[in-house]
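Feature request, filed as a ticket because there's no other form

It would be nice if the structure record came with a short human-readable summary line next to the tokens. Right now we just get the raw output. Example of a typical job, pasted below so the devs can see what we mean:
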Amino acid sequence: MVTLVVLLFATACYTLLAPWQFRRDQERKATNAAVQASFTSAPVPLASLGDGSEWRLATLVGSYLPDGEVLARLRTVQGEPAYEVLTPFRLTGGQVVLVDRGFLRPDDAVQAGDYPAPPTGQVTLTARLRAGETDPQHRDAFTDQTNGGRRQVYAIDPRTVGRATGLTIRPGYLQLEAGSPGVLGALPLPELDAGPFLSYALQWLAFGTMSLLALAYFTWREIKPGGVLAEPKHPRRRSVAQQIAEEEAAERQAAEHGV
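Raw output as currently delivered:
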């Protein structure tokens, strides 16, 4: 049973845990490269950006659709709880995109509180292109009557917002830059550090190797001559009762033989 557990653990280390951390390390490197490149890239029209353009700065012209606004709940910004305000935005060409106007801090009652509405009329925005999120539980938007009757979602997913508002929204969303019309608390960019993922992957490989080496060592200890499976060289220690019984038996045997 112990051998099976060790083999399963080592297999998980090599095929699941270490590869998972290697993938996360590659994802972090790709994000860092994309963010770093965006620092020196000038904003370009949104229509010119395609797949693989996450974090690129884009310009878009159109008008906000405040009736479709929702709050993304259970967010964390700079280590503190926050809401993010998501407002559909209709481009001049007719397509609708989802704009993340930034974050709000909840009040003492853990509510979003009041915040400025987006500007009316046609405006020009500068924002970063982001990939949409997916709620693992696939929950729909809901209206929280205790939070001003505002519509809320659990993930920044244009499909969820589209179902709730009846709008057809382009995949992905735009994270508004500071100074753009309608921005609230501008969201910070991710930190450009490598993270611990590579070291975690190497640790899982080390744990798997150590478990196999330990299994091999103790198996060798058990099967080698004189090992723990061999007959003991010294008799087991007798209890006091056993010693008394043996002495009485020896005395009876001596008496029977007239010793």
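Something like this underneath would help us a lot:
Residues 90 and 96 are 4 Å apart (CA to CA).
The radius of gyration is 34 Å.
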